[in-house]
Here is the input.
Amino acid sequence: MTQTKKKLAITELALRDGHQSLLATRMRLDDMLPICEKIDQIGYWSVEAWGGATFDTCLRYLKEGPWVRLRELSKAMPNTKIQMLLRGQNLLGYRHYADDVVRKFVDMAAANGVDVFRTFDAMNDLRNVRTAIAQIKENGKHAEGTICYTTSPVHTLNYFVDLAKGFEDMGCDTLAIKDMAGLLTPVATKELIVALKNAVDIPLHLHSHSTSGVAEMVQWEAVHAGCDIIDTAISPLSGGTSHPATESMVAAFAETEYDTGLDLDALQDVAAYFREVRKKYTRFESDVTRVDTRVFVNQIPGGMISNLANQLKEQGALDKMDEVLNEVANVRKDFGYPPLVTPTSQIVGTQAVLNVVSGKKYSVITEETKNYLKGMYGKALGDINAKVQQKALGDEAPITVRPADLIPDELDALTREVGDKAKSVEDVLSYAMFPTIALEYFEERESGHFKPEPLELDEPVANTSVTAPALAPTEFNITIHGEEYHIKIEGTGHVENDLKPYYVKVDHVLEEVYVETITEMVPTLDGRSIDSGKVSKGSKRPKARNDSDVTTPMPGRIVAVNVQVGDAVEAGDTVVTVEAMKMENPVHAPVAGTVKAIYVAEGDTVNPDECLIEIAI
Here is the structure.
């Protein structure tokens, strides 16, 4: 009797999660379009090309219209389903949106070319995906319900089975297991897939990062246990914090009952193209994208580790990384064991950094932590530490309803707010996701002069005749009396009595050195240097010394200044907004009074011990 072959389907991740995982999401549309015709001929089940961090990065760094990218890729691959990653009620931003915004976003994504919507909620709270999934089905598109896989004392096999049944009951066409940190092992995978296949009838789709080094074995076990579709990335964009290589998995299942039917020779052409393209993005390569088996212990995805490293570097505290990694586990337990994926990974990670750097747990609590503990992101599976919750909320009671139930329709208000700067519904939705950077993008679009982030630090800025100044070197070799030393700047501290500490590795030995600035020159875009005393007010600011001084709870970038000198403020009023780890955090006035001085402007980088705004009582 001839055995019936069960063809394994493949989703290609090169155009989204491959470069998001390895190259900070920086691949440009111009480097995607030339290979799309060949990708379209491969026979993939789908190509993931939109969503996740791509929307933010297009606007913020690349100065590309994210909706333009979607339309162009859809047009370039007419025979292949375009897949996106959607964060449920968060959409592609970092807060919950009203239902009318969610519905309109899904409508416009479908109209612009998305065929498959992989939809998840960071908390695995099914209430937070219902609106999006219902609207996907209303548009006649493929709804893929998604389980965020994690491990903890409360994440049991029965829990994941119940989630799967919930997604199937919503009408989802497929079910994805999103193993964002690479925590699945071959044994756990087989157990999970068998349990899910016995519980639901819809096809299963596995997404597992290679961070821990076992993803290929995980996919092998998953397919043999009944998984129908796997995610892979073409080899130049595979491995480490990315995913198993497409060609490798196609070869592994060739001539088996699960043969994908994909042509290895054709895949080699695609690989050869991306092998050359990756060379253009060397600036965005990072050590933290390699295999890191510590993820089995700390559950921290590679992208989150890089964010933690940047936060610690800005505070001159890179030597505290191990403490922070341990504290992440403690904070996660206090928070009821949320899966670590955007936005919960940023919330937990930032709070862990603050707990370590401040020297006292929860002495500084971010606005996002308060919102999380209030239930504004959904219901935690485990028990939340009652003492931490009370410290964050005071007498305020946590909510028990679906968070979006508390958000009135906001699409009309957003449309009025952005005004004629928006030229389309898509523009209004971009503004809803990222107000500050969307407005910057609209202004550059109106002027006809986009200024994308350069691929090289000394690359000419687009549409100008000047050259961007190179940054000071952070790693170099020096030769003194014939002896060569390898120097790497690991981080800096803050000026104290005119001395600034620098953390420097000399031949891989970490040293702390203090530098007293006698004079310094600041480069400008036209290549000139100006005396540091002539730099804008946001460049130098006093140390926070009084209880009335406004400070940021974390290092970050100012995205909004909400007051002017002379304004009267009440304690608790939002006076500035700081962006850190992809989260926008309002900073409040600590006391009632009058704004006496403002030491920051939009775009400034700030640190916790600095006075941002001085308030006279």
Observations:
- Residues 364 and 553 are 6 Å apart (CA to CA).
